[in-house]
Design goal:
The chain has eight helices and six strands, in the order ααβαββαβααβααβ. By secondary structure, it is an alpha/beta fold.
Length: 254
């Protein structure tokens, strides 16, 4: 089997996640992406009438999902990228539910990570994985290109689109696979506030080969380019496409 390309650096990935706690101490810290993901998972479980027992929640730094599931009677284990290598077999298995929030977009081997989730479920167990997908942050991308000028650098992650996600679920052997996407729209008066919101939520760069920091002139070009997309109210509406993958492990256990 071919080794997947090394796009993301595990150490940088852990560092990005580690900074969340400190940034969330700020009174105006953003948390709308994780809040949307938690609400969506609970809605999906209610819709399919799945009452999880033994549950693993990965990546929910807010703690909200685990707390809500425990109130419903679930036995909840929690993990983040510091404790769990999602590209390796899970140390525990036989989970009735695995919910992964905001982490799978920065693994190097996404097909392998999806297989490991399936294998950590008990037969009939359900998995739900959400992360920021393709089509997100278009104005930020344009601003970074403008800042770099004639020598653009790789500053933002490659992102998975919904069609590729559906194919990956089938390859990973998930039963009843579903891939869907929803859009969050958030308005900003400055590029700096958008970047701050990304850092608050652990959505900063974890690229293995990070680009050099923008110089002062380049940063000013990026700021100006970002504001060119502003509407009559002076605000730029940025989009976050939240991709969600869901499915089950076959009752046959494979």
């Amino acid at each position: 089997m071919a080794t997947p390309p090394r796009i993301f650096d595990p150490a940088r990935r852990r560092a990005v996640r580690a900074r969340i706690a400190a940034r969330q101490m700020r009174p105006d810290a953003a948390r709308f992406v994780i809040e949307d993901m938690v609400e969506d998972v609970l809605d999906r479980l209610s819709f399919v009438r799945h009452e999880p027992g033994r549950t693993l929640v990965v990546g929910d730094w807010s703690g909200s999902l685990g707390a809500a599931l425990e109130q419903q009677g679930a036995e909840v284990a929690r993990a983040d990228v510091h404790e769990l290598d999602e590209e390796q077999p899970y140390p525990q298995s036989e989970f009735d539910l695995i919910a992964s929030l905001g982490t799978l977009d920065t693994v190097n081997d996404l097909p392998g990570a999806l297989i490991h989730i399936r294998e950590a479920l008990k037969p009939g167990g359900r998995a739900i994985a959400s992360f920021v997908g393709a089509g997100s942050l278009g104005h930020l991308r344009a601003a970074m290109f403008a800042g770099d000028g004639e020598r653009p650098a790789a500053r933002m992650h490659p992102m998975v689109d919904i069609r590729a996600a559906a194919q990956l679920l089938q390859r990973a052997g998930w039963a009843e696979p579903v891939a869907d996407c929803r859009t969050l729209r958030v308005s900003y008066r400055s590029l700096d506030r958008l970047v701050g919101d990304l850092r608050d939520q652990g959505l900063g760069s974890a690229l293995a080969s990070p680009a050099p920091a923008l110089g002062k002139a380049a940063l000013e070009r990026a700021r100006a380019a970002f504001l060119q997309a502003a509407g009559p109210d002076g605000r730029v509406v940025e989009t976050f496409e939240i991709l969600t993958l869901s499915g089950r492990r076959s009752l046959r256990g494979t």
